[in-house]
Every structure is written in structure tokens, then in C-alpha cells.
Cyclin N-terminal domain-containing protein (Prymnesium polylepis), 252 residues
Amino acid sequence: MRAILVDWLVDVQLKFKLKTETLYLAVGLIDRYLEVHPVVRAKLQLVGISAMYLASMYEEGQDGSCPEVRRWVYICDNAYRQKEISDMHRRMAVFFSERSFSLSTPNAVTFLEQLQKQLSIGKNSEAYLLSQFYAELTLQEYKMLGYRPSLIAASAVYIALDMVADQSMPCSIEYPRQTSVTCSAASKKAALLAGGAQATWSTEKALLPCVGEMRRLDAAPQNPKLNAVARKYQKLLGGEPLTRPADRGSRA
């Protein structure tokens, strides 16, 4: 049920044009809340949409793009009333406040954006979108909670750079149009591993277990009810396939 809920929240994020950070924060809030307050199946979507509401207030509130309560009711197909969503949102806010849980705690997308910037992986480039895809693919899988967010981010970048190994990319993200000054994907992957000495990985071997899990998630037969992430990034990549058969077996 958790996987179905997260898959639906990906569609909600797209429908409301929310930030990726909002989605990651919402999933984290759901997991932490349910650890202490398990709910019956009929209320799981209520927890999910309330977590998304809370996350959007934090991530989207400053620019005024946080949807109003009535829009959350609409996106749930009126399964819950405004009061139910407002009450659950309030209970969750109190729950996290009482435990001094910081909504700014880094998650996988936080580390992913740092790595993309450090490695000058331009936004909306193929490598950028593929790394976003592989990281987001892990949100539905409960077992991936066993990996640190920084390791998930590094593994996603590692796979993406493997998949664009034949491409040259700008060495500097500040000057993407200076195509005469380019770096290979391999050199960026080497830089990724070098930077890992200060993080949770210091060798290629340290990344491979998480990389293997991500590749298996991608290679598994697609459940038509759990394909929101694939649909999202396939559209962003112009309808191109998200995976290449030759890549799936490598380094898994």
C-alpha cells in the first residue's frame, strides 16, 4: 500500500506543479509518522495527502504556490472533507513539533542537487534527468530506506553517468554554451568517486550494492499501477526510453 500511495503522490506533485523537494519531504514525513501512528488502510491516503500539504507549506509557502485545502480535497476525489485534511495536517504538525523534527533535514534530493552542481551536470540535461529518475525510483521501495540519502544520490548519479558515457558535457555549469570546453562522463564519474572520500562512499565498490538495487528496480517488470515515476521522466526526456538494455547488466 505504501508503494501505491507514493506512486499517487508523484502524480499529485505533477498535477499541482510542486517542487521535487516537496515530494521527498512528504514521503519522509509519512514514514516517520506511521512508525509511531499506524493507520487503517482507509486512512492511509489521508495521511499521505496531509503530509504533502505540510511539505508544500514548508517548501512552496514562500512563493505562495502552496495549494489551498479545497484543492487537496479535489485531488483526493472528495474522499475526505476539508476538516479531515486540516485536522490530520494539524496533528502531524504537532507530532513533528513535539519531537523537534526539522523539516530541513537533508534527504536524497538535497544531496543529489549538491552532487549535480559539484559535477557541473546541467539542469534538464540527460544525465541530470536520469539521475533524478533513479533517485526518485527508490521512493516507493521500503527496503531502500536502509541506504543513506547521500548514498542513494551518489548511486543515481553514478548510473546516469554510466548511461551517457559516450557523451561529452560542459566542464562548467556556469558556461554551458562553451561546447569547445567539455568533459567526458567518465571524468565526471571519477570526480564523483573522488568526492566520496569525504562522504559515505570512498570507492566504486562502496556504491555498487545500492547501484545494483536501483538497476534491479528499473529492470523489474513494470507494474502498470506503479509507473508514475517512469511516465514522469519519460515525458521529460521527450518520450525516449529511460533505460538501455546494454546498461542494465553492467556493474550490477
Observations:
- Residues 173-181, 244-252 have pLDDT under 50 and may be disordered.
